[in-house]
Prior knowledge:
two-stranded antiparallel ribbon
Amino acid sequence: MSENGEESLVETVEETYETEVRRKVIKTKMKIQETSSTTTTTTMTTPAKLYGKDLSVYDDVDVDTLLDKLTPEEINILAKEVDPDDSFLPPSQRTSYDCDKEPTGPLNRKQLIEHINKEAIETPDIPEIQPYVAGVVRGKKWTPPPPPQKDIDAQEKIQIDLGDEYEHALTNASQEEIIDLAAILGFHSMMNQDQYHASLLNKGQPVGLGWDGITKAAKQKIFPMDPPNSTDVEDSIRRVQNDDPKYIDLNWNNIKNISDEKFNSLFDGLEQNTHLETLSLSNTGLTDRGVDKLAQALENNSHVRVVNVESNNLTPLGVVRLIKSLLKQTSVEEFRATNQRTQILGNKIEMEITQLIEKNPTILRLGLHLEYNDARHRIATHLQRNIDTIRKDLKMRLQFRFFNHRNKQLIK
């Protein structure tokens, strides 16, 4: 750009800047006039002044004429006091901040932060007029005002008359008796956990533990590890296949390295078994390869009441296949299948499981993690309905047996 172009650009910027300054000054004048008109209508002890003169002096002043008489230096000084409110102007021209110092280099944010932190650390703190001393109040201590006399009188009037017997009992009661009474009434804030549980269990209060006592952490008890499952896999398969009447609970939990052939042999025997009631296959490595065999066995077995396949490698489709098999005989009352290889079932699978459970009239407990509230609510409602139905049926049976027994006694 040529020098003439730069000069014209500078002149344009200066004209724009002066125009904005004039607008701001005019706005200020209008505000002054409004203020002066307002002050005349209100009662004031001292008249409003500007630069030592009354506001009425500036009513007939022509701002444009005054601005024309100002030099660029004077306009610059005036601009520092009056900021033109125009968002189209750059911030360096519409703010009163003016820094004439030349930049020393490009901005380095990391060095700037390090410098600020260094200055904050090296700058000494302002010395305190009165040093801090523990237990000594510095300055004037605030004391709350006394409550109104009417509140004091009202509190004095509130008195509970328990009678001479209760007053005598509470006056002569020991600390342990008061703690027991507080535990019975449910005043948990008056005691700690040790005192509360000692009162409920009637063990006697701990020695040396008063009202301000603190419950201490008890030393962790180390229990021996549970022994591994000692169930003989081959023998249990043989007993299920032979329909042993004494073998009603099969427990293979936590037995590793069970082959698919053994699973298939067990499920083939379960299909014809009439005595087994509990089938526990938790953490046995069961996969979808054995799901079809197990589902077929459950469809043909009407005596199994509990099925537990938790902590295995079943897919959501495998879990759905097992739940669907429970509708054939409707004899299973408890089914557990949490902690599988796929933790999240998905909305589609959960809705399908919900529809299958709602069709099952005998299932009472379902161990399965559901993510969606709708599925959990619907399943919980259906399970409670099944429990209520069984309770009513059991109650009617007991009443029927009672009446039959009473009638037999009367006939005799």
